[in-house]
Amino acid sequence: MPMIYITPPTPSQRRPQYGSDVIVDMLHACGITYAACNPGASFRGLHDSIVNYGGNRMPELIECCHEEISVAMAHGYAKASGTLMAALLHNIVGLQHASMALFNAWCDRAPVLALGATGPMDSMQRRPWIDWIHTALVQGTLVRDYVKWDDQPHSLASVPESFLRAYRIAQTDPQGPVYVCYDAGLQEEVVRPHCRCPLRTAMRPRPHHRPTLRSWSALLTCWSRPNIRWPSLTRLGVTPQPSRASCTWPNC
Question: Which of 93, 102, 180, 203 has the maximal Cβ count within 10 Å?
Answer without folding.
Answer: 102
